[in-house]
Structure formats: C-alpha cells, structure tokens
Hints:
By secondary structure, this protein is mostly helical.
Amino acid sequence: xxxxxxxxxxxxxxxxxxxAAELFVRDGVAAVxxxxxxxxxxxxxxxxxxxxxxxxxxxxxxxxxAAGVITRQVxxxxxxxxxxxxxxxxxxxxxxxxxxxxxxxxxxFRPGEYFGGSLGLHSExxxxxxxxFIKRAATDSDTHTKAKWYVxxxxxxxxxxxxxxxxxxxLLTAFxxxxxxxxxxxxxxxxxxxxxxxTKRAH
Length: 203
C-alpha cells in the first residue's frame, strides 16, 4: 500500500502507527522490527503487512503523519506574521521545539538513530508541504529547492542541536531565513570562469 499520496489513513493503520510510536520511544527506532510492532498493535504479521508492505513503508507513513501534524501547528502559530525573515525564523524555531517536546518524534533523532534524518531529507511529501509554506515568504519561484534546504537545516539541528534555543534562533535569523526569503533569481551571475589559458610573464 502506498502512503506517499494517500492522506486517508484507516483506523487500523492509525492503531499500528500509535503502537509503533510507543515502541520507538521505549526501545529506539532502529531496534524495533515488524514482529514487535505487530505484537504491540495486537494484530498478526499478515494484517500488519496488509497495511505496510515493509518496515520502510511503515517508517515513511509514520514520518509523513508526523510532518503533517507539525506543519499544521507551525502554520497556525505563524499565521499573523508578515515579515518574511521573522516568519521563517519563527517557523523553524517552532518546528524544532515541537519535535523535541514530543517523545514520539524526538526518538527519531537520538544519537545513533539515522532513520529520521534520512527519511526527512529524501521525502518529496515533506518537501511539498514545506514548499507550500515557504511560498508565503519567498520572493521567487524556486520554492522546491528552498524547501529542501529548509528541511536539511531543521534535520541538522535536530540531530546536532546548538547549545541553546537562543543560539539556534540567532543563527536562523542571521543566515538561514534571509537566504530562503531572498530572490535568488535576481542576483547577478557569477563571473565567467577562465578557460585555463594564461599569459606567460616575461623573464
């Protein structure tokens, strides 16, 4: 079953993902297999595989469900902000805070875990969610590329936090948010590179 474009998750699938969440918090994402999830959800392996064809599919569904919730919460939180840099900074700070405050999400970014970062960086669904949000702040049309950069920054800070949220806000305000909101298409082209030929100096 493909979860990439299907936003209608059945009650049974939700129960499975909820059971998986408890295991991820307790044991870590990498340590939890399909057998453990089926047992915790109170279903057979056959039923589990009816909804999720493999472990990766379950992880993808889990991350996409969480990303949808976080995106909605962030969007509501910054609804009244008009300044592009302030909007993007506040959105990133809020996303970091929400993920870290939720054990079922922060478990994906514990030391030694790699699933959260990998899925986040390579998910077109998450990039599309973020790109839709970035359209509010970006002044050019390259929102897809900027969304990928936005996600990469958040994943990096989740995996390797700064010393304090204040330090993260300072970095995001000074360097990341302005770059995302800027119109890169209006920047002058880089100087043409030399073809490698040089004039020899006379001796």
